[in-house]
Amino acid sequence: MKRSLFIGDVHGCYKELVQIIEDFGFVKGSDTIYQTGDMINKGPHVLKCIELTQELGIQCVLGNHEARLLKTLDTPKIKWTEKERERLKRITNIDYVYSVISKWPLWIDTPEALLVHAGIEPYKDKLEDMNPDVLLSVRLWDNQPWFKQVEWPKKIVFGHWAKKGLVKLPGFIGLDSGCVYGKALTAWCPEEDRFYTVQAQKVYSEINEYAYSSLS
Question: What single-letter DSSP state applies at residue 61?
Answer without folding.
Answer: P
